[in-house]
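Note to self: keep these together.
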Amino acid sequence: MIRAAVLLPALGLFACLSLPAAPASAAPDDAMQMPSPAGKSDSPADADMAKGMATMQHEMNAAPMTGDADHDFVSMMLPHHQGAVAMAQSELRYGKDPAMRRLARAIVAAQDREIGVMTAWLKAHPAPASTP
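Structure:
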């Protein structure tokens, strides 16, 4: 049986390798856009997954960049993790495969813990004051 600790990093690497790189001439906002999933489906599961992805992307794009790498990292990772939870919850609502449902439960648990860490960090480290 493949354990989540082994599968998750591999899935992350696959996701990074499978996304097209933004062109060098792309504006910063263009570089943040994710490609739309291939093909269209009218299934409730796909609509649920697309909604979670759209919310995640919107929140990531809305995260203010402050110039503080630590703060900006957490500001971007929070919605990213929340999107992973939303997608995993969609799997739990609609998925049938026992292995994928176990993986989705593991993702929710891990991401919820990390969301807690990041939320606490942001409370302890407010955004730097912007300079005129």
